[in-house]
Write a structure and sequence with these properties.
Number of strands: 0
Number of helices: 23
Number of domains: 2
Structural class: mainly alpha
Strand content: under 5%
Order of helices and strands: HHHHHHHHHHHHHHHHHHHHHHH
Radius of gyration: 33 Å
Distance between the termini: 104 Å
Amino acid sequence: MDPIFLIIVIILLGLAVLDLTVGVANDAVNFLNSSIGSKVAPLWVILTVASLGVVVGALFSSGMMEIARSGVFYPEKFTFPSVMMLFLAVMITDVVMLDLFNTFGLPTSTTVSIVFELLGAAVAVSLFTIWTTENGGHLGEYINSGKALAIISGIFISIAIAFVCGSIIMYLSRLIFSFNYEKMFKYLGAIWGGISLTAITYFAIFKGLKGSVLVSEGFLNYLEHNMGQAILLAFIGWTALMAVLQFLFRVNILRIIVLAGTMALALAFAGNDLVNFIGVFMAGLDSFKIAQDVVASGGSIDTLYMGALNNPVTANWQWLLGAGLIMVLTLWFSKKSRSVTDTEVNLARKGDGVERFSSSALSRSIVRGTMNMSKGISSITPESMKNFINKRFEPAEVESDASFDLIRASVNLTIASLLISLGTSLKLPLSTTYVTFMVAMGTSLADRAWGRESAVYRINGVLTVIAGWLMTALIAFTSTLIVGLLLMWGGKIAIVGLILLLVFILIKSGKLHAKRKDKEQSQLQVLASEEQMVRNSKEDVHQLLDKVLYILKNIVTSLQGEDRKLARNMTAEANELYEKYKDKRTYEVVPTLETIQISALDLEQEYVQLVDYSYEITKSLKAITEGVLMYISNNHSAFSKEQIKDLSDIYKKLSEGYRKFKQMAQICDYSQIAQLTELREATTALNSKMTKRQVKRVKDGSSTTRSSILFLNLVNESKIITLQSNNLMKSFRHFDEEYAKSAKEMGAQELVKTTPRKI
């Protein structure tokens, strides 16, 4: 047998390990978001509980490996070489797809992706077989399209039902308990715990352990036929236990509910979704073993059709345990899993703050329509009822800066467990990701977490995630179809090329994820003290001025030498600088002013102005670099020596002003600050002269239209930089002097406090 097939099995094993890591990074949000968002326990406790659920779920993994072997296509129609290429196409595409979703922090369904990847690869191999053989038949003979259609219908049903149920149950729960739930919870807590844990137990047993390799069919059949009695006994037992823990041992049973739900969802995830990550590898390994036996008996693999894959399979527990351990390690160490979890927690959190998503016309229309509908309902609602409802929804502080409280976390887990269990009992192809996410969004909406300051952004975020879900099936099918055709046509060369492409994509996505997280962290920065604000502001101003001079010098050089690479680099640096100060205005200034206690109001004012002036400078710098890059990229006529000299003169004047300012700032002596005003006037006058010279060049025809437009724009933007730089320097002087004055006054007060009074 050709060694390439053994190599394919080894590649499938490596890709399965990668798939486990990227898959868990994506699906961890399903069972982590409620516990992390409510800060039910320290992170290590949450991860330990989830890890236990993952390992148990992996060992009790349901025998669903058939989905990768015969769930979407008819294996008896495929030869051994074809089916190995099919499995390889699926794994390559799945790793790339899930990694890209994780990179951008978007949760998606591993079930939907693997099914449509299997479908796409099967179609590719089928089409190749039909095109290259005389009696290839037609596509319908190869593909089991019924399951794909069932999954699509399940997607739409689960999204709507989960959101509506989460909203209604959360609204009723908040009416019962309110945000100050401690008093009411004393009386109803045990019953609430009994209901929640019974639902979670039902979910764990029916969904998590159904068809598992370590639980007998007889036991599961007994439970299924006596489920009503089992649920009643579970409710009585859990309610009694919760009452004992609450009243005798003073335990916060909400924490038990949330942690139990986290473990149950983790167990069900590992038990049911493990096939999404290692099912294809296991099918490939079994196919290889079947082919080995055929070759050993003198048969040919070219005529070996894989009907044997229709036979029932029981996975080796050692493979399951190994997969479970990899999933646990990913859970603890994957940064991308935190990104996906952060997306859901951020969209569901209570209160305003930094929003990851922008608004859209659709989200604005939804919010506007909802507000109008709310006003209509409010107008016919009795005043007493409105007062009662508003009182129940009066916000309260959540502990440890949690994104939401334990009541909502318990509702999230309970409703998600019930809906997934119900869907499974009705044999509906629900996605764990879709249900848990939409329940969380529904509960956050009903909990009034989406206020007028955040609703348009949150709704657009939810729409973005849903759009990603709906695109998952199309992208998975199309991508795997292309990869499958490449593998069938290209053979060994295509295998090597696609593996190298996979490695390249993973490396690039890792860098992109790190860059995206760095940007998010910079957006989340809130200065914690007056000293930190002053120190950071001073450093930012000096760095900005140095960077402006550096970029202006190089952009003139690039224009002189028509150096497109240098212009592109300077444009990238100018854009980065612009984004930095744009984010400062949006995400740093107001939260900083709200957070720290500043002794001098003038200091706050100067801090705001420093950021504003810096932003205006970077905006003009961005316009300059982009204009030059576009000019050079379009291969327009080179600037004349006179034009380059004029731009260099402007740079020199600006550089002189920056140098004098830095000298004054270093010694904190601004007695010569008037010189900066004189330099500003001289630079402004120089700008006017440059404009007149360019007008003259236009008149005598020595300058082209495009160069004239760019030159005048550059002069104008340079004038703005000059004026805003002068404003920045003056504001910096006042800022520095106000802080020195404030520090001196505070020092005197501390001295009075600590000096003993003479009697």
